[in-house]
Structures are given as C-alpha cells and as structure tokens.
Prior knowledge:
Elements: E1 4-7, H1 12-23, E2 28-32, H2 35-48, E3 54-58, H3 59-63, E4 68-71, H4 78-89, E5 93-96, E6 101-104, E7 107-110, H5 119-126, E8 131-134, H6 141-145, E9 153-157, H7 162-172, E10 178-182, H8 189-206
Parallel strand pairs: 1-2, 1-4, 2-3, 4-5, 5-8, 9-10
Antiparallel strand pairs: 6-7
Helix pairs in contact: 4-5
Amino acid sequence: MRGFAFVGGTGPQGLGLAMRFAQAGEAVLIGSRSASRADEAARRIRAAVPGAVAEGVENRDAIGPAERIVLTLPAAVLPTFLETARSQLAGKLVIDVAVPVALRDGFFELAPVPGAPSAGELVQKAVPSARVVSAFKNVSAERLQDLSAALEGDVVLCGDDAAARTEVAALVAKLPGLRAVDAGRLANARYLEAITALLLNLNRRFRARTSIAIVGLG
C-alpha cells in the first residue's frame, strides 16, 4: 500500500487524522504496537468512511510500504521507537505530530524532550536523512474524529526541508477548513508545542475544541 502510514495511529490524534485523510481519498495504513488494535482502528475507519482504503498492522510493518510517515506516538515513547526504526525512516517524509505535554494538578504543561528542544527536532536528530515536518500539533483530536464537525484553523508547518514543507502543505489542502502556514525552520516546532499545552488548558476550562488561526498574513 502506498500513501500514509500512521505510526501510533490508534491514539486519538492519529485515528482522527487517518479518518480525515481517508475521507479525502487517501489510502491509510494504521500502525500500533498491537496488530489487533491496529486492525480494529482500520475497521472503524472503513465503517465511518464508506469506500475507505484502510489497513492495520504493527508499527514497524506500517513504515516500509509507505512513502509518508505520520508519527502520532506519545512523545514519551518517541526516543525508544526512533532507536529501533531509524533505518526504516531514513529518506522518507516524516510528519511529526507529537506534543510532549503532562497533566499535573489539573493543568497541562509542556514536558521536556530528552536530548532536543522539541519532538520534531528529536526526530530530525535521530534520523538526519529524514524529511521531517512538524504539523497538525494544534488541531483538536476530538474534532478530527467527529466527521460531522467542520474543521477550521491553521496548520503551522515547521521543517528544515522547504520541499517537504510544500508537500505537507498540499496534504493539508485536502482537508477542507484547514490552511497550511509555512513557518520555516524546524526550530519553530518548540513554540507550536507550547501553544498546544495552552489550547488543552482552554479546552479543559471552557469544555471546547480550540484551534489556532494566524491573522494578518494576507
């Protein structure tokens, strides 16, 4: 199968993104530590999106046949995963969606990433030849999974490979209601992740599904 591989795609963000891209006509491959959980997630997508092409396999098996890898693993397990999968990720477009947040005393805060200022920079450091773009970090997972809800807001893209950012921008354009905003260097991903912690606190306080929009760009 060509198309997308969603590594850790049984979690809320991965499943929501996979559903939306399946709805947009993309073939999706769902990865999980458990093949049975991955298969269950793929069945959910096919049930929600008639005609969808969706399969489920273990995480490592999801990487090989895909040209574009979406890393939707929890940030805490990224370092271990990257140690074992770096050779498979080499040279591929890797879309980093992970946000290292922790909930303490009812408050979300940004958690440190071992060895890097952000999850995206950690992925690039671990796999230097990968074309890493941080994206979709500020899009509500709950809204993504609710296919009856319209998406809205901006998807800020950060990556050191300009062509990779352009490719991801074209993918964002397939999801109605979302606009890609090219923010340049991957180092900007650290600020995106901090915004996500803020949005989660707003969601918790106001029982909302917030996202961001950048004004003034013309």
